[in-house]
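Worked problem 6 (solution included).
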Amino acid sequence: MAKVADSREDRGLQGVDRVVRLIEVLAAGPAPLSRVASEAGLSDATTFRYLGSLVSHGLLERDPVSRQYRIGLRMFMLGRAAIGTRDFMGAATAVMARLVQDLDETVNLGARAGDDLVIVHALESSQQIRKGASIGDTDNWHASGLGKAILSTLAGTDAEKILAERELVELTHRTLTAVDDLRRELARIRERGYAVDDEESVEGLRCVAVPIRDASGTARYAISVSAPSYRLPHHRVHETGLALQAQAQLLEALLDYQPAQHETR
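Solution. The predicted structure is:
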């Protein structure tokens, strides 16, 4: 049974190798079936099958007049999206490093993945923190600065859906567990431009976060600074929020966000 499974896996990997070869051939420019097959080292019949499947997925196109194959629009779109993501993460890392240097506190980057909130990057400061986030961890929407920052930018129905599908667990005595309280908190976040986790997820830990919005005006990401409450007292929260906002603007520009004229960020 294991040999059968291995054989199937080998055939699958062979198929992947063939697809890569075909794409690499066409990356040099449009070509007819015979030339694609020759340069990829495949038979015409095999090449025709693979090219047909790639065309059906929009990754390749076939000119009906010249009958030549070329890279499809969807391939370009996927490549552009990949480049954009890499550029964003590189810029985000630089912004986070600057914040760590200036504030000497831990900085996290969270992202909305479907209806989940995921930590996608974290830079620790030289100072200890009680709760260190790990990349790939999920976080609470209702009790974290990252979650509330992103929720504050979503349409009301979208935010309500996320909250309705989750139990609003009381993690500390400060956690907001009533939807009405969270609605009021999100309104305050929209007004001041940053979110605060005031020991709501972990006793003794305070977090300030801002959303990073894209061209739609909603946030896919949020960035935060976390520290023990004695190192991030209430009188430092506002200045920390302003520092985060200034850096978030740089990242929002990469995502084509256009702030409204009345915004004072």
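Discussion: Residues 1-6 have pLDDT under 50 and may be disordered.
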